[in-house]
């Protein structure tokens, strides 16, 4: 007979874990689960997590043990954890590191690469695999195979796919030394690395390469600068766009000993290569005569460190070249490891495993990011729009639903509920944004807005000269708008969780007036817009945020909502 306890979890034999949201220990259990499990569904009362191989390997690489994870499940489980689940967790985590990639002579960093294992049976299994055999030379002994010099990254990818993630102990090319120091200072107006930022830098330094997961607004750029100071070599920084590149430059000038002459921008507008070079993903993946003309930048200089900002957005061509850059130290910075293309395994194998992950709500509790209240406000299509939606092809339905005309009036009503606050209206479709900007009499920023004009308007928003901006997805990434306290999301990339992370992040910088940020998503009822909204809810639930569902009619009542 099974004995019941009072925990909030039900662990099932198919590796799913059910979390009872209303349980008093639910928040504590959710935080513990996030170390190794992925949230799959998040309806009102029961959230469903899945324990995955990649989640367990990331946890193992970050220093967690199978015993810790089993203890977490036992502590919070309502019923005894199925024996096979505990044993499979232990077996999965044991797979990490039983194969290692090393130097043939550990004392000689220039010696050949080898794949080693103390268990010859594992080596026999992987070396006979069709995709792995061409990456290896003739067996040296029963515990060692030589690795082709060019194959370090590809071998790690294939081993992860095979279920045997190798620990890379082969070391790194130091790169050309270059002194970079943080300019920390105590007292009023000074700054110092926060405790979690220092832990993130230390975790990266100890691991050699890997990914740091921090909320938007928690200072990922500063962690990147700390890693640069720790490595002390010429550095290539890859970012999402030119605005982000200039924000990185400004932050490095503010936080480090680097001068303007030491930081170069490599983008569509400028082609500078300096000891610290900031390049955009867009320029690296642009083609000339069918070739990636600028990808050679990644390997053309003796970089000691490559920083991948927003690593969850890394384009496929950069993955391909990163497979050839395994001798360079790499750090990925992101707010979420979720990739909409399912290539989390490639991030794990090519950039490195997760080295540090700070929970959003923990950093909020410390006062380093602002608290946020999240609302989903449901609207109805007008009769003419409902007819157009009903006869549209599948690929057009989301655009029609997301662009419901009533969202213009509702956006104005929400803005009126927040007098004096700085508001972002964010959307996906340019024609919808143009109509919204005209209806609200607000300035509009899209990808077509010149970079200098974008920077001018963003700066005016930061300084309070502009209180309302309508923006496209160009504002999703690495744009620092610390005074934004209200975001109204009118359309997006089909419920993308990574996009939700970025958009919520626009609001999470601490507010001078200790305001609680308000994040609204306007969703068209009984359409694919509402279906896609469930993905966004999953992300918010993963981070511990509640999502209040409201009807548009509630905004016709007098103000007084939270």
TrEMBL record:
The residue range of the signal peptide is: none
Gene Ontology terms, MF aspect: 3'-5' DNA helicase activity; ATP binding; DNA binding; hydrolase activity
Look at the named UniProt entry and state the broad enzyme category this protein falls under.
isomerase
Give EC number(s), comma-separated: 5.6.2.4
Task: Provide the alphabetized UniProt keywords.
Answer: ATP-binding, Helicase, Hydrolase, Isomerase, Nucleotide-binding
InterPro entries the UniProt entry points to = ATP-dep_DNA_Helicase (IPR050615), ERCC3_RAD25_C (IPR032438), Helicase/UvrB_N (IPR006935), Helicase_ATP-bd (IPR014001), Helicase_C-like (IPR001650), XPB/Ssl2_N (IPR032830)
| Reactions that this protein is recorded to catalyse | Couples ATP hydrolysis with the unwinding of duplex DNA by translocating in the 3'-5' direction; ATP + H2O = ADP + phosphate + H(+)
Question: Where is the Helicase ATP-binding domain positioned along the sequence?
Answer: 201-355
Per the record's keyword annotation, is Iron-sulfur included, yes or no?
A: no
All copies of domain Helicase C-terminal, residue ranges: 405-556
Q: Which family does it belong to?
A: Belongs to the helicase family. RAD25/XPB subfamily.
NCBIfam families tied to this protein: repair_heli_XPB (NF045503)
- Identify this protein by name: DNA 3'-5' helicase
* Organism this protein belongs to: Leucobacter soli
